[in-house]
Amino acid sequence: MIYPIVAYGDPVLKQVAKDVDLNDPNLPDLIESMFETMKNASGVGLAAPQIGLSKRLFVIDSNLIIDKETSDEKGIKRAFINVQKVEEFGEKWGYNEGCLSIPNISEEVKRPSTIRLKYFDIEGNEHEEDFSGLTARVIQHEYDHIEGILFTDHLKSLKKKLLKRKLTKISKGDTSVAYRMKFSGGSLIKK
Ligand code: NI
Fold it and tell me: What is the whole-number distance in angstroms between the Cα of residue 7 and the centre of ligand 1?
């Protein structure tokens, strides 16, 4: 099932998400739907708050942004459940980020090169694992979502001021987008 993606301005995107019940029988279907929703929107990551669920759950497919010709990084397609950040380390680097909840805007965000996470996989196994490269970048962006943080929150205040009008327009549904979205200003859904 393809969910509409919640647009900038919806309070669910500002909430710190809660753990899911690992024994919830609907969890596998939900994860499958999240992968489907991400793919439909040509995204590389999708966090549960972006479909209106304040849960500590996200899916990624970093293969989609790794240039196989110039990079030997191996991408991953995976669901991360009940995720907790252990630490971030390594030199900060800038990358132009976008977000399915904030269409038609992208800005450079600087983040440390490596992130260490604790999470459960879809089989219910717990992991503690380090990620780097573009996979880390996608994870850091999605992890922010379950902490109620958007990439625009990382921008300098001048940049934020310059984007304010565009962001207000997005929150009202005044934007052009190729996938279904849900806008907080009147819960309008348009394609
Ligand atoms: Ni995002």
Answer: 10
Task: Please provide the DSSP assignment of the chain as one string.
Answer: -PPPEEPTT-GGGGSPPB---TT-TTHHHHHHHHHHHHHHTT-SEEEGGGGT--BSEEEEEGGGG--TTT--PPP-EEEEEEEEEEEEES--EEEEEEETTEEEEEEEEEE-SEEEEEEE-TTS-EEEEEEEHHHHHHHHHHHHHHTT--GGGGS-HHHHHHHHHHHHHHHTT-S--SS-EE-TTT--EE-
142 belongs to the catalytic site:
yes
Which residue among 69, 128, 129, 142 is the active-site one? 142
Mean pLDDT by 10 residues, the chain (191 residues): 96 98 96 98 97 98 90 94 98 97 97 98 96 97 98 96 95 93 70 48
pLDDT for residue 123: 93
Range of the domain at 98: 5-189
In the chain, how many domains are there? 1
Q: How far is the CA of 50 from the centre of ligand 1 (A)?
A: 8
Question: Quick check: pTM over 0.90?
Answer: yes
CATH number at residue 172: 3.90.45.10
Residue 125 Cα to ligand 1 midpoint, Å, equals: 26
Ligand 1 center to residue 157 CA distance, Å? 19
